[in-house]
Amino acid sequence: MASTDAPTETKLWGGRFTGATDPLMELYNASLPYDKKMYAADLEGTRVYTSALEKLGLLTKEELAEIHRGLELIHAEWANGTFVEKPGDEDIHTANERRLGELIGKGIAGKVHTGRSRNDQVATDMRLYVRDELTKTQTQLRALIQVIVNRARSEIEILMPGYTHLQRAQPIRWAHWLSLHATFLANDLKRLEQVIERVNVSPLGSGALAGHPYGIDREYIANELKFDGIIGNSLAAVSDRDFVVETMFWGSLVLNHLAKLSEDLIIYSTAEFGFIKLADAYSTGSSLMPQKKNPDSLELLRGKSGRAFGHLAGFMMSLKATPSTYNKDLQEDKEPLFDNLVTVSHSIQIATGVLSTLKVIPEKMQAALTMDMLATDLADYLVRKGVPFRETHHISGEAVHLAESTNVSGIDQLTLEQYKSIDSRFEEDVFKVFDFEASVERRTAIGGTAKSAVLAQLENLEKIIS
Question: Domain Argininosuccinate lyase C-terminal, which positions (predicted)?
């Protein structure tokens, strides 16, 4: 792996060095294999930056026109897959500038980097790229929430057990369960809007760290690149990767919510529950057992949440305690960030497909409702007669115990005499308690499982995504 004596002339930083780079170091240092996906952002940044140079008189109108012509040709090559990568193209910036020199001549191409550093250039490229990717994801997340809301509206009559500790607790509407997950995702949507706002500020014109030597118009650059503002400190501009951390944290959190959704659906799809059936498009079979229908889509959604968090934690460790301002450690931002963006986008789309196509089995959900789930309603019955809840809770527990000890099928099967033996305040109307529909309809307060409350939740969700 010994290096040769001659330096590589194509490097943007090559003038200081008289010896070539170790070939392994070339590979270790290169980022083009993964940062070339930012080609459009890099070319757009250069287009606007050179326009700002022309405003300063550092480029003629003719030179600017030639540069922009070359940038368009390079964009077309990347877009149609004909761009030829060459040795020395260590990153997207080097590759694009090298190709620009081949197309319009090195004399003019060599001016595009005037006053600019790869430090502010890469920070700009990343912010442009992340902004655009997050904006696409924003649209996808809205679509997922809309699918959940639509499903909840159409299936609002279906009742199912609600669970705590994975034990049957109280009856709820299936639409209420759907609203639960849509609520988490709606919060993610709000957070995403805030993340995009902090991503969308311009570092360009900060140079390597100390600022621009020719007084370039940074506000013009920011406006042209559709940034909402400017990073006001050049040291911060080139070294800030908080937006990367925030983006990956947001991705980790939304995947965590999709993992929770997936876990519920995996359980509900088992033969033991049988509440739902996944479409074949989102299931796979077993190589050995012909009867199997595995929820691989949901298991992958659940598993990828760990992968996303791992990327976040890894980059946080790379980022911590790096000295001011730019350090090569920061190059470790792109691979985990890009993977996070793709994984989150694909996961949201897969979740949308799963929820659009799964089949609900209402009779299975109904059959899973048991009268012991109305024990709290029994306690509430006495509360309405003026008995303190702490007392009614104990009384209701006695009724459950009596039903179990006398081997009846549920607390609804106890006689009025048996109820009066527990507490004399029970009357004939106690048996009106044992109605699952009535139980859910009593919970009309904001956020509850009554039809009116669920519809209000869905209406609020639609306002959020509109």
Answer: 373-441
